């Protein structure tokens, strides 16, 4: 949450910052601001509410000759969306931008008598004033004294008025990456802002102070000793973060799924079955556990629900899926025989990170499934399996979900093989069925006409229900999240059999019910539930496999996915559900890639 960028170098700081903020806007888009040293070496601040384009207009014909500055795009936490609350915040000699939450801001306000000084309602401005009180001309000494006073998470980029041309960066939990490039020194919350300038970067180690100038980046640890940054290479190119002819990132990312799946699965197959040796994962991790605990949030957690439905019957060990933000309060039963699977696209979701840390503290081994290389969860977990989806820019997760699923299927297969629930042949067949699901996704990518037709029906409704049983229920949860988060239509997923225990009271004439019935073992029962809603006037959108027999009058719209094994239908179904959400949102004329109130990468609790 909140996009951060800083630049010091020979090029126009304003241009680099504004371009970077446009790339980072998916992290937060309530307001944006920048601070640059002007040609008199004085700090100039510009801020505006709304999108980065408003800030661009505000900065037109200004700050043309600036070579050092910082910029921020905000997702509001403390205080509403106002110019005062937008970053940067200036306090005396200190001008800073902040990502994260300073939990003890109230106590600091009192301790440093800041009540009359504050012009915003933000914890970040409090931090700026505290740092200013500690500043006596030496940024390092001030930052060293400052950090132990803070509780919470932070990524700061700081300018000091009497230090033109210098940017200081420091972080705890909230991500910051940096690079010295041929165009100058850069620091940002995400790689996407650096990619146009470099393919090498480093993750700023926590509590390390970075000093950026036009000529170099120096890192200092808490004792003031200089340390060498550990550079990594970016594993995707800048095209991956562009729309490449698609009207929205979301549609592009939906279309990228078949390729992303191949990139994630194929390098991990040896003789047709999954092998994680190159990922450094020993088979003992899978053979020595007697329970699996999955922790994740949102879409990643729904991928975990699918995994549970696949793994538990196959492995015959308990698989528990917990919402990461609730996990700490559940007093979970864990020990060294519990394998914790941590699922996160960004690798920075703070609740997921905290859940992982709790699991580890209870002796559990942690295996993270992460898309962003070098992210905090990836670095802190015992083991990591990277998904190779490339950057996911649309706020609503699509390709990250399907690649997470593919890794979970690979884990299920390897575990079944290692634990002797699968023979070599069973494992190879399982993987073949997984691979067969990929062309079925491609087939569904071309079903736009039917999906647009059903989207045109959904837009006139304020409620939509998704129903399904067993795996189909797990898919429904993700379908309803996708629809509600971008189209703002209230959508609920219910296990089909549970409807008549209350929710069916809401079914009335014309209410859309999206029923998913792809699982052999529960097909007939789900169809009976569809009849129940149809009898009460529902507009039924039925999704089944190709050869399923259903009475023509049961469904108002019938979408058929290719005839693949029922354990793998999530892949084509995911495409259908994502396209339903996408086209409904387009028809409503809403911002598909940046829905209101949301931001990519939730780094606050
Ligand atoms: C929904 C969505 C979110 C994320 C959730 C976890 O489309 O994107 O629900 O899945 O915030 O994020 P990560 O996977 O980055 O931990």
Descriptive overview:
The chain has 605 residues and is α/β, with parallel strands linked by helices. The protein has 3 domains: 3-234, 4-Layer Sandwich (Glutamine Phosphoribosylpyrophosphate, subunit 1, domain 1), CATH 3.60.20.10; 244-441, Glucose-6-phosphate isomerase like protein, domain 1 (Rossmann fold, 3-Layer(aba) Sandwich); 448-587, Glucose-6-phosphate isomerase like protein, domain 1 (Rossmann fold, 3-Layer(aba) Sandwich), CATH 3.40.50.10490. Helix content is 34%, strand content 23%. It has 18 helices and 27 strands. The strands form 5 sheets. Strands 3-2-4-1-10-9-11-15 form an 8-stranded antiparallel sheet, with helices on one face. Strands 5-6-7-8-12-13-14 form a 7-stranded antiparallel sheet. Strands 19-18-20-21-22 form a 5-stranded parallel sheet, with helices on both faces. It starts with a strand and ends in an 18-residue tail after the last helix. The mean pLDDT is 95. Bound molecules: fructose -6-phosphate.
The level of helicity is: 25-40%
- CATH class of the largest domain, please? Alpha Beta
CATH domain fold name of the largest domain = Glutamine Phosphoribosylpyrophosphate, subunit 1, domain 1
User: What Rg is obtained from the alpha carbons, in whole angstroms?
Assistant: 25 Å
Shape: globular
Total number of distinct structural domains:
3
Q: List each distinct ligand once.
A: fructose -6-phosphate
Determine the N-to-C terminus distance: 11 Å
CATH architectural arrangement of the largest domain: 4-Layer Sandwich
Unreliably modeled segments: none
Give a short account of the largest sheet.
Answer: 8 strands, antiparallel
Mean pLDDT: 95
Number of strands: 27
Which band does the percent of strand residues land in? 15-25%
Structure class: alpha/beta
CATH homologous superfamily placement of the largest domain: Aminohydrolase, N-terminal nucleophile (Ntn) domain
Lateral arrangement of strands in the main beta sheet: 3-2-4-1-10-9-11-15
Number of helices: 18
């Amino acid at each position: 949450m909140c996009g951060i960028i800083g630049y010091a170098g020979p090029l126009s700081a304003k241009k680099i910052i504004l371009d970077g903020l446009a790339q980072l806007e998916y992290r937060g888009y309530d307001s944006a601001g920048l601070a640059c040293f002007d040609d008199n070496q004085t700090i100039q601040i510009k801020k505006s509410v709304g999108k980065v384009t408003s800030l661009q207009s505000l900065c037109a014909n200004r700050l043309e000759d600036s070579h050092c500055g910082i910029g921020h795009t905000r997702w509001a936490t403390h205080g509403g969306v106002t110019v005062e609350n937008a970053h940067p915040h200036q306090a005396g000699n200190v001008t800073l931008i902040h990502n994260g939450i300073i939990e003890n801001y109230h106590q600091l306000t009192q301790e440093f008598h800041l009540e009359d000084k504050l012009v915003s309602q933000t914890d970040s401005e409090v931090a700026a004033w505290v740092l200013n009180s500690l500043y006596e001309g030496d940024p390092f000494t001030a930052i060293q004294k400052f950090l132990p006073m803070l509780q919470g998470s932070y990524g700061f980029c700081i300018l000091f008025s009497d230090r033109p041309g210098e940017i200081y960066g420091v972080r705890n939990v909230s991500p910051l990456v940096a690079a010295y490039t041929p165009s100058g020194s850069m620091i940002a919350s995400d790689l996407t802002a650096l990619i146009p300038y470099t393919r090498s970067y480093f993750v700023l180690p926590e509590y390390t102070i970075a000093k950026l100038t036009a000529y170099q980046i120096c890192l200092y640890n808490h004792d003031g000793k200089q340390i060498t940054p550990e550079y990594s290479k970016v594993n995707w190119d800048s095209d991956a973060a562009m729309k490449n002819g698609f009207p929205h990132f979301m549609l592009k990312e939906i279309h990228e799924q078949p390729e992303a799946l191949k990139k994630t699965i194929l390098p991990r197959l040896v003789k047709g079955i999954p092998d994680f040796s190159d990922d450094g994962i020993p088979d003992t991790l899978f053979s020595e556990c007697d329970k699996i605990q999955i922790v994740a949030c949102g879409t990643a957690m729904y991928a975990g629900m699918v995994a549970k439905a696949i793994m538990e019957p196959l492995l015959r060990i308990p698989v528990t899926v917990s919402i990461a933000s609730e996990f700490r309060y559940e007093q979970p039963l864990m020990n060294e025989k519990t394998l914790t699977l941590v699922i996160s696209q960004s690798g920075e979701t703070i609740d997921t990170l905290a859940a992982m840390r709790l699991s580890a503290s209870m002796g559990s081994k942690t295996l993270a499934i992460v898309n962003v290389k070098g992210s905090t969860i990836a670095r802190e977990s015992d083991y990591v399996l990277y998904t190779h989806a490339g950057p996911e820019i649309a706020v609503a997760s699509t390709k990250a979900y399907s690649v997470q699923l593919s890794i979970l299927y690979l884990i299920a297969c390897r575990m079944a093989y290692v634990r002797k629930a699968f023979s070599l042949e069973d494992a190879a067949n399982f993987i073949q069925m997984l691979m067969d699901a990929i062309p079925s996704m491609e087939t569904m990518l071309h079903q736009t006409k039917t999906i647009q037709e059903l989207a045109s029906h959904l837009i006139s409704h304020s409620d939509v229900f998704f129903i399904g049983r067993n795996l189909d229920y797990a898919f429904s949860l993700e379908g309803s999240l996708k629809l509600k988060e971008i189209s703002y239509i209230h959508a609920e997923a219910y296990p089909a059999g549970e409807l008549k225990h209350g929710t069916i009271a809401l079914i009335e004439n014309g209410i859309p019910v999206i029923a998913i019935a792809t699982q052999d073992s529960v097909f007939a029962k789900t169809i009976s539930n569809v009849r129940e809603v149809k009898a009460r006037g529902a507009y039924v959108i039925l999704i089944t496999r190709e050869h399923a027999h259903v009475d023509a009058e049961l469904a108002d719209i019938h979408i058929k996915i290719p005839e693949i094994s029922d354990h793998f239908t999530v892949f084509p179904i995911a495409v259908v559900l994502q396209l339903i959400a996408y086209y409904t949102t387009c028809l409503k004329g809403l911002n598909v890639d940046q829905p209101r109130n949301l931001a990519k990468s939730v780094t606050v609790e």
